[in-house]
Design goal:
- The chain is built from 9 helices and 10 strands.
- By secondary structure, it is of the alpha/beta class.
- The strands form 2 sheets. Strands 3-2-1-4-5 form a 5-stranded mixed β-sheet, sandwiched between helices. It has a 5-stranded mixed β-sheet with strand order 8-7-6-9-10, sandwiched between helices.
- α3 packs across α9 and α7 packs parallel to α8.
- The longest helix is centred in the last third of the chain and has 32 residues.
- The structure holds 5'-O-[(R)-(carboxyoxy)(hydroxy)phosphoryl]adenosine (KG4) and zinc ion (ZN).
- The site of 5'-O-[(R)-(carboxyoxy)(hydroxy)phosphoryl]adenosine has 18 residues, from α4 and α5.
């Protein structure tokens, strides 16, 4: 069963080819145009998807060594995301399915992030817990089976990726700032500065207080020392990153203890963070968990995760009609 999958929910245009659940190619075209605006500009993202989609699909087919006639189904990200971006991928996928007369598979982007953990082996057993941390979402999900998931905790305000990106912006770093904080944090002392940990009941998260605390912290220091950020960048990044990680993993630990689940995963763009990856593994050892982290290329937005989700949807006979439309918001 050979699936062509398309992801276009935000600012990455990606196409992957999978056969029987194995990824044969995963081509991703990023968009640098947004750097100068300090965030993703939806209209520019849609235009860039239109420019990228045909070359990206061609490259994915070529890399996989297959042709259109070999395809069994087409999968695409239906929701959630930027509507203009989603429309480019969904209309392309629908046209392709119609032209080739093959089934269409509509995929939920956050479900796909979770299932990125089923691409490599060894794979987690069911049920597993997944901390999904991206630019738009922060969730703790119980995954009962590939297509049955339950959100048991989520952010009440900013997502973890936004916490990274907004902190980076306050430090004068370009968008997206998450990978830059990660890079500078490697040379810094995470214990040098202390930022508050919000006390949110249950398994939910909040990151807006952290952003305000960082803003005041920087204002205080910069009034007496204008070179404060420049001279302490690595320690500031390491301290911010350490706090974001502790907020995330303290809740995940609580979720694991409450549910008794021992197979734990992380997913989403922020799971590419080197600090989060190593602290998650260490915590897993201490708590006796089996820990799983997707390879880097399957953490940030990619079509391989859409292909693997499409594979399970195909097995379940969960096909979408050609009348299906993209949706910016999605309910689980
Ligand atoms: O999953 P993703 O690619 O897109 C969404 O679905 O939102 O996640 C993007 C987010 C951005 O906020 C970006 O800054 C963050 O993931 N990110 C990172 C790292 N790589 C990407 N955050 C921290 N450290 C990283 N290495
Ligand atoms: Zn994503």
């Amino acid at each position: 069963m050979t699936i062509l999958a398309i992801e276009s929910s935000c600012d990455e245009t990606s196409c992957a080819i999978s056969s029987d659940g194995w990824i044969r190619s995963n081509v991703i075209a990023g968009q640098t145009i947004h750097e100068q605006y300090g965030g993703v500009v939806p209209e520019l993202a849609s235009r860039a998807h239109i420019q990228h989609i045909v070359p990206v699909v061609d490259a994915a087919l070529k890399k996989a060594g297959c042709e259109m006639k070999d395809l069994t189904a087409v999968a695409f990200t239906q929701s959630p995301g930027l509507i203009g971006s989603l429309l480019v991928g969904s209309e392309f996928a629908k046209s392709l399915a119609l032209a080739l007369d093959i089934p269409l598979l509509a995929v939920h982007h956050m479900q796909a992030h979770v299932l990125a953990n089923l691409i490599p082996t060894p794979r987690p057993g069911f049920p597993f817990l997944c901390l999904t941390v991206s630019g738009g979402h922060t969730q703790i999900v119980v995954c009962h089976s590939p297509l049955t998931m339950e959100v048991i905790g989520e952010t009440l305000d900013d997502a973890a990726g936004e916490a990274f990106d907004k902190s980076a912006k306050l430090l004068g770093l370009p968008y997206p700032g998450g990978p830059l904080i990660d890079k500078y944090a490697r040379d810094g002392n995470p214990a040098r500065f202390t930022f508050p940990e919000p006390q949110i009941p249950g398994l939910n998260f909040s990151f807006s207080g952290l952003k305000t605390a960082i803003l005041y912290f920087l204002q205080d220091h910069m009034t007496t020392d204008p070179g404060f950020v420049r001279d302490n960048l690595t320690d500031i990044c390491a301290s911010i990153q350490a706090r974001i990680i502790s907020i995330l993993l303290n809740k995940l630990k609580k979720a694991a203890r409450q549910t008794g689940i021992r197979d734990l995963c992380i997913a989403g763009g922020v799971s590419a963070n080197s600090g989060l990856r190593s602290v998650f593994r260490e915590l897993g050892k201490a708590e006796g968990w089996n820990t799983f982290i997707p390879p880097f290329e399957y953490c940030t937005d990619n079509a391989a995760m859409i292909a693997i989700t499409g594979y399970y949807k195909y097995l379940a006979g969960d096909f979408a009609p050609l009348s299906v439309s993209a949706s910016a918001r999605a309910v689980w």
